Amino acid sequence: MKIRPFFSLVRVHCTHLVLLLALTLSLQSSVQAQTTVPFTLSNNSAYADANVYVAVVGIINDNHVWINPKTGAVNLMSVSNNTVQGPVINGNQGPGGNGRYANCFARLSEIPNKTINIPGIAGCRILISFNSQLFLYFFGASGAPSGYAAPDLANPSDPNQGIRFENIELTNAANGLWANTTRVDGYQYPMGLEVWGNGGFYKKVGEFIPHSQILSLWQSTAPADFAGCYDATNTIIKFPSKTPAFQSGAQANYFGSYVDAIWSKYQNGNLVFNAGDAGTWSGRVSGNVFTFTRASDGQIGTISRKPTNIEVMEGSGVMATGGQWDKVVQAQICAAINRHAIDLNLATGVTQDLATASKYYQTSPYNWYCKFWHRSDISLNSLTYAFCYDDVYDHSSTVNASSPIRATITIGGYAGQTQTGPVTVYKDCNYAGYAVNLSTGTYTLSQLNALGILNDDISSLKVTSGYKVTLYKHDNFGGATLTVTADNACLVTNNWNDSTSSLKVETNSAFSTVIQAESYTYMAGVDVEATTDAGGGQNVGWIDAGDWMSYDINIPAAGTYRFDYRVASPNSNTTLRLEKDGGATQLGSVTIPNTGGWQTWGNASHTVTLPAGAYSIGVATGTGGFNLNYFTITSVSSARLAMQNTKLVEDNIVSLTPNPVHDQLYIRGNDQVKTLGIYDISGRAVMNVKSPGNTIAISHLAPGVYIIAIERKDGTKKNVKILKQ
Question: Domain 512-637 - what CATH class?
Answer without folding.
Answer: mainly beta
